[in-house]
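Response to reviewer comment R2.3. The reviewers asked that we include at least one raw input/output pair. We reproduce the pair for Fucose-1-phosphate guanylyltransferase here without editing.
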Amino acid sequence: MRAVQRGLREGGAMAAARDPPEVSLREATQRKLRRFSELRGKLVAPGEFWDIVAITAADEKQELAYNHQLSEKLKRKELPLGVQYHVFVDPAGAKIGNGGSTLCALQRLEKLYGDKWNSFIILLIHSGGYSQRLPNASALGKIFTALPLGNPIYQMLELKLAMYIDFPLHMNPGILVTCADDIELYSIGEFEFIRFDKPGFTALAHPSTLTIGTTHGVFVLDPFDDLKHRDLEYRSCHRFLHKPSIEKMYQFNAVCRPGIFCQQDFAGGDITDLKVDSDYVYTDSLFYMDHKSAKMLLAFYEKIGTLSCEIDAYGDFLQALGPGATVEYTRNTSNVVKEGSELVEMRQRIFHLLKGTSLNVVVLNNSKFYHIGTTEEYLFYFTSDNSLKSELGLQSITFSIFPDIPECSCKTSCIIQSILDSRCSVAPGSVVEYSRLGPDVSVGENCIISGSYILTKAALPAHSFVCSLSLKMNRCLKYSTMAFGVQDNLKKSVKTLSDIKLLQFFGVCFLSCLDVWNLKVTEELFSGNKTCLSLWTARIFPVCSSLSDSVTTSLKMLNAVKNKSAFSLNSYKLLSIEEMLIYKDVEDMITYREQIFLEISLKSNLI
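Raw output as returned:
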């Protein structure tokens, strides 16, 4: 599970003598969950919670989906009341990155509230991507990913709000910036709290391996005099490195030497990347900016007008901070997906704007950072990882109708808000969410089934990904189900039709799959940009009139590839995943989930 290990950062420090760090981490997490549960559906008092919770969206379709789901959550009293919940959509045109989305959000706040937001405590959650590495979150958003936790079930939004429950009480007016697909857990002393009350920027930091540091932000902290690390430390930062090489970490004195930590200082868990005798670094997660800094960025954005390049809130904002920041990073585009002509110039302008602004760091030595943004991470953390299961209290069956799943020390299956016949089978390592499965359905190992309805006899091969979407096409309700392998790379693209043999579907050459489905290789096979051909843009998924037919048909095309037997798709209207998201019918998908919810509630005598 090396790829999954890179998604987890964990560290630890001396906890109270009576509790090992893993126990104090679990208890601290459970306390936050209980506190948030008490606030769900209740009117919060001024200063008790966030004044504003804002979520970013990539386009108007996503904005509509997010607003619809927020509205439903508030109706069902799943969120604290008396809070302003907003969705801020990026402007149409070029991608602007989460840094650009941050600037747009500041502008929207100014337009909505004028000078009033000077006194607000604001949570800004970036959720504007299309989740190509975890496509069951593509239609309704990463921040609305369901978790095997709670009643009614938690989604990532509720978990974020729960884990940050203590922040607003000790925060000056300003904005906390976070991402939708990660989880930060931490434990500090019983009478300690995290303060966001210093001018400039304040970021959380977690002890991590050097390898983890190469894919995240790394803090170069000023020297620390204490001989022993504590769970909570307030440190000043000399400079911030974004995805540095290990060589650069040593070059800029970002690496901490072992010797201070002892064996009991580290948070527990089945995966321990950070060894007690290894060098380590402090890596980033979320950050806060005070209102003065936010106003400075807003004035800058209003001066430049329109962005035409991607700005990274972490790489482009934080690297400009601290007394050791230099302009050299602005010319390093090795970590940039799309390099535009204006990128270097824009980075330099941001650097000169923010230079001299302080970067304060809150070091959380008994903390963990989990990233759940890929199919591999999703399956691992929900079915195999005992650490996260223990810390959050994750369940194998959450708000579902299904016989008990035998617990074991290795992996189990995970069922979330679904109705499964007692005679169907779900193999260990698989996740089923928002679905109905009949008696003759068998699901192989390491599968993801989302939003599906399977009544007829069906066998889902191991490592299958199946996700159904409702569509509105020519004012008619239709359905389409994306089906492929959980390890398929939907983002990998080629520039010409002659190169599509380099793409793989369920581990098989894509060209061979097209032969199995009797599809010809033409430009019409792909939607969107004809020089960026990928599984994401391949028109291979049938459109059907019913949800069950949609799932059955897509499973036939999947099994045809698996069994090397012909299954012609010529008679079907075919869509790409990209097009499914354009045609998606958010209201119908939410209605389907609501129907499952009501049926489970009735059968469980909960209403």
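DSSP finds 16 helices and 30 strands in the chain. Residues 1-17, 260-272 have pLDDT under 50 and may be disordered. Further pairs are available on request from the corresponding author.
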